[in-house]
Amino acid sequence: MRRHQAQVKSRTPVSARRVPDARLGTMPVLEPNPPNGQKKLLALLGVIAAIVVVVSIIASVAQSMG
């Protein structure tokens, strides 16, 4: 007579389980000398500063309205 063993369910979700992957050895590497890196960074910082200025203007207008 065979005994039926209860199936033990894993508490780890399927998406979090490790799956062996052959590509793990090749990590993406940042480009050592990106073209126009300083210009892109300056443009990004300018956009962030512009967003901060616009939000602060809207906030001060909203506060003055009551």
UniProtKB/TrEMBL annotation:
Residues 1-32 are annotated as: Disordered. Keywords: Membrane, Transmembrane, Transmembrane helix. The chain crosses the membrane at residues 41-62. This is Uncharacterized protein. NCBIfam families: SGM_5486_fam (NF040912). The keyword Transmembrane helix applies.
